[in-house]
Amino acid sequence: MGADYAGDVSPQKAWRLLSEDPAAQLIDVRSDAEWRHVGLPRLAPLGKEVHLIAWQLFPKMGHNPDFAQEIAAKNFDPAQPLLFLCRSGVRSMHAAVALTGLGYQRCYNVAEGFEGDRDENGHRGNLGGWKHAGLPWDQA
């Protein structure tokens, strides 16, 4: 557990947390282009929704200046578990750190992200990540 946020969890542990804790929420911080073209985690089997709040805005990928306000609009309890997911775990880690700094106490980074790291051919989805773990997801 790091001092800057609650820590990293694997996609499998994220699924367990979301399954076992009714208060746990998943926030996908990728861009709208990624949501549309790469796919989305599916939490319907758990009776939950994925919260889509971009950390960076496509196409320039600059920081979303409204990120904190968009989180606040969801009225999350500062003590409930918030799990942040991006492509590979970098943006989501920054989001977890930022929200911890705003007083949210249980911000987790889903390490490996939705697609995981690049393989030897430069492709994602084969080494780690939500999709590779076989967790539910949809593609638009």
Tell me about this structure:
With 140 residues, the chain is of the alpha/beta class. It has 4 helices and 9 strands, in the order E-H-E-H-E-E-E-E-H-E-H-E-E. The strands form 3 sheets. Strands 1-8-7-2-4 form a 5-stranded parallel β-sheet. Strands 3-9 form a two-stranded antiparallel sheet. It has a two-stranded antiparallel ribbon with strand order 5-6. Strand 7 (82-85), helix 4 and strand 8 (107-110) form a beta-alpha-beta unit. The radius of gyration is 14 Å and the shape is globular. The relative contact order is 0.24. The mean pLDDT is 95.
CATH architecture call: 3-Layer(aba) Sandwich
Largest sheet: 5 strands, parallel
Return Rg in Å: 14 Å
CATH top level class name: Alpha Beta
CATH fold topology: Oxidized Rhodanese, domain 1
Shape: globular
Beta-strand portion reads 15-25%
Strands in their spatial order, largest beta sheet = 1-8-7-2-4
Tally of distinct domains: 1
The CATH homologous superfamily is named: Rhodanese-like domain
| Amino-to-carboxy terminus distance | 35 Å
